[in-house]
UniProtKB/TrEMBL annotation:
UniProt xrefs under Gene3D superfamilies: 2.30.42.10, 2.40.10.120
Family: Belongs to the peptidase S1C family.
Organism: Caloramator australicus RC3
Sequence intervals crossing the membrane: 12-33
Keywords: Hydrolase, Membrane, Protease, Transmembrane, Transmembrane helix
Signal sequence segment: none
Single biological process term from Gene Ontology: proteolysis
InterPro entries on file: PDZ (IPR001478), PDZ_sf (IPR036034), Peptidase_S1_PA (IPR009003), Peptidase_S1C (IPR001940)
Protein's UniProt name: Peptidase S1 and S6, chymotrypsin/Hap
Gene Ontology MF, one: serine-type endopeptidase activity
Residue ranges annotated for the PDZ domain, each copy included: 240-327
Pfam families recorded: PDZ_2 (PF13180), Trypsin_2 (PF13365)
Length: 349
């Protein structure tokens, strides 16, 4: 008699039954194998939702935003240290200014740092139970990143509002007056007006990446913010010494972008277009037309980067600048830093 072989249908039925039994045993006796994958999916979903949630970022920072009443106007600031240091714009300062916290407490403020060209200032209040912001890294931002601008609209001291937008440009330099520039700014389409000038520009993690400046935001639909990294060495000195005295090179300088606008052909570094007589740079032999390539071995291509490195130095200390002259010769010069108070704070670095 001929032996009958199992049909293909029989194999299919047996395989299907085996798969069902195997899945049942896996879920019943080894639930962690599937649970871990499901938890990972949920965790990833939570992280994604959190980083795209405007309310998460706004509510994290809002308690640290203050209103500053001066000159009959209301502007903004934000607490950068729980000991009472507040960042804001230089142009909002007034000897009779009143700082109002979100809990309604009011204080007078003392100016501990001011840069009129950069439109940056730090004031100090004597208060406790303060919530400081988290400072981000403005070097890590990208065009297209979502951002929020927070501040006080319509001269309302006790209200904070949030406007949303994206980073539409970075390392932007604009001329605010003839011969005076604000360099390396963050450009955003988030609305910046007199009310939120001095307030924080934040990413969706609730980290401050810039200080809003209405001084540079007089163009329709365009706002600018000062990169937050410039404030870090200033805050470090205030925390450690209780004061900050900015050193200077005594130079008037451009970054690459601005230099090209004025037809100075450089591809990197910081262009020197004026040297103050008897200043540190003058005494070190730096000339108009020289290009600063590095300071103490740190390459610099943006004014804000050079300024940040300077702010880490002490008045009376020496720095080594690598300089390229107009004919391409590179040399190193030693510069003895002086106090910026001995020069024009509005013009020279």
């Amino acid at each position: 008699m001929e032996e009958r072989r199992p049909s293909l249908f029989s194999y299919f039925v047996v395989s299907l039954l085996g798969a069902v039994i195997g899945a049942f045993l896996m879920v019943t006796f080894f639930p962690a194998a599937t649970q871990g994958k499901e938890e990972n999916k949920i965790e990833n979903r939570i992280i994604i939702e959190k980083t795209t949630d405007f309310s998460y970022a706004a509510n994290k920072v809002l308690p640290s935003v203050v209103s500053i009443s001066s000159k009959g106007q209301v502007a903004s600031g934000f607490i950068i240290d729980q000991d009472g240091f507040i960042a804001t714009n230089s142009h909002v300062l007034d000897k009779n200014m009143i700082i109002t916290l979100t809990d309604g407490r009011e204080f007078t403020g003392n100016v501990v740092f001011q840069d009129r060209v950069l439109d940056l200032a730090i004031i100090k209040i004597e208060a406790d139970n303060l919530k400081e912001v988290t400072l981000g890294d403005s070097n890590l931002i990208n065009i297209g990143d979502s951002v929020l601008a927070i501040g006080n609209p319509l001269n309302l001291r006790y209200h904070r509002t949030v406007t949303a937008g994206i980073i539409s440009g970075k390392d932007i330099t604009i001329e605010i007056e003839k011969g005076k520039f604000m360099e390396d700014l963050i450009q955003t389409d988030a609305a910046i007006n007199k009310g939120n000038s001095g307030g924080p520009l934040i990413n969706l993690r609730g980290e401050v990446i810039g200080i809003n400046s209405v001084k540079a935001s007089e163009y329709e639909g365009i706002g600018f913010a000062i990169p937050i990294n410039i404030i870090k060495p200033i805050l470090k000195s205030l925390r450690e010494k209780g004061e900050f005295k900015p050193p200077t090179l005594g130079l008037k300088i451009f970054d690459v972008e601005t230099a090209r606008y004025y037809n100075y052909n450089i591809d990197r570094g910081i262009y020197v277009y004026e040297v103050v007589e008897d200043g540190p740079g003058f005494k070190a032999g730096i000339k108009e037309g020289d290009v600063i390539l590095s300071i103490d071995g740190v390459e610099v291509n943006k004014v804000v980067d050079l300024k940040r490195e300077l702010y880490l130095k002490e008045i009376g200390s020496k720095v080594i600048l690598k300089i390229k002259n107009p004919i391409g010769m590179v040399r190193e010069v030693e510069v003895l830093l002086d106090s910026i108070d001995n020069l024009s704070v509005d013009v020279f670095r």
